[in-house]
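Morning!

As promised:
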Amino acid sequence: MAEATQKDIRQLSADQIGEYFESIGEKKFRAKQVDEWLWKKSAKDFDQMTNLSLSTREQLKKDFVINHIAVDQMQRSNDGTIKNAVKLFDGMTVESVLIPTDKRITACISSQVGCSLDCHFCATARLKRMRNLNPDEIYDQVVAIKEQGDQFFGRPLTNIVFMGMGEPLLNYNNVIAAIDKITGDKGLGMSAKRITLSTVGIPKMIKKMADDGVKFNLAISLHSAIDEKRSQFMPINQSSPLDELADALKHWYNITKRKVTYEYVVWKGLNDKKEDVEALVKFCKIIPAKVNLIEYNPIDDGEFQQAAPEAIGLYVKLLEQNDISVTVRRSRGKDIDAACGQLANKSETA
Ligand code: SAH
C-alpha cells in the first residue's frame, strides 16, 4: 500500500520530474524517458520502465506512486456499447462508456465524481459532487476505451465526448490538462477536432475557453430556450440565464469560428409545444449551430416523459425549414444504464 506522503508522479510536469532527478543526483534527461512511460506508454508501475536502471526505479518507487485507474467492472450492451465502472486510487468510482457505430468508436468520459448541478432529469445529479478528477484519471479513461476498441472491435478510437459524469467546466484546469495530453505528441496525439466538451453552459468559462484558444468542439445541454422553463429543470439557469449564455456563445464564435451543438431532450408537456420549438429556432440563429435531439432515458418516477413522436417531428420540421441541421439521436446502451444521464454508479460493487 502506498505511503500517504508519496505523490502521484503524474501530477508533476516533465520539467518538474527533471528537477527531481537533478535533486537526487541523476541526469535530468531521464525525465523525458519517464514522461514517455507515464503518458505515451501508459505504464502502470515503475518496473515497466526498463530503460532506467534498477536503482533509479527503486528510488522512484520510494518517492512516488502511479495512481492508475482500474476498470473494475465492464458491462456490454446488446447494441455493442460497453460501460466501465472505473475505480480511482481512493476507492471512488466513475463511469465511462465506449459507443461503437459503423464509422466511429467514441469514448464518453467523466470529469468529476458525481455532479453539483442538480439537473432534475439526470441520474448523475443524485450522486452530488464528491471531487474533481485529476488529469491522469481523465486520460486513463480514454486509454482504457482505446484498448477496448482494439480488443473488441479491432478499430481505433475516433472520438471523445466529455458527456459522462460531472460538469467539465467546473473542473476546467484538469480537463484542459488532460486534453493537452490526449492531443499532444507526448500523449495520444489525437486531433482536438475529434473531441467535444459538453456543458450545461457556464458563460464565464465558455468565454475563457475561447480566449484560451482551445481547438475542440463545444456542445451545450440546452433542453429549453425559454428561461422560465429551463430554470425549472436546470437550476444553473437561475444564476446564468439564456441571455448571458447567448453572450458567451457569441464570444466563442467570434474567436473560434466553430459551430456549437445544442443537446436537447423533448419532454411531454414540458417543452413539446410550438412556442418551445420557435424559441429554439430563434436561439439557433444567435451563432451557427446544430441540434441533437436526444431520446430521454427515464431515471425517475415519471416527472419527465419522452414526448410524442409528433412533437419531435415538429422540432425537426421547423428547424430544417430554418436551415438548421438537426439529428435525432437514438439512445445507446440503455439496457446497461449506460445512456445519457443514466450514469450513477449503479454497477458499483459494494
Ligand atoms: N454536465 C455536462 C456533461 C454531462 S453530458 C452537460 O450537462 O452537458 C450528459 C448529457 O446527457 C447532457 O446533455 C445531459 O443534458 C443529458 N442528459 C442528462 N440526463 C439525461 C436523461 N435522463 N436522458 C437523456 N439525456 C440526459
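The chain has a mean pLDDT of 93.

Hope this helps with the figure draft.
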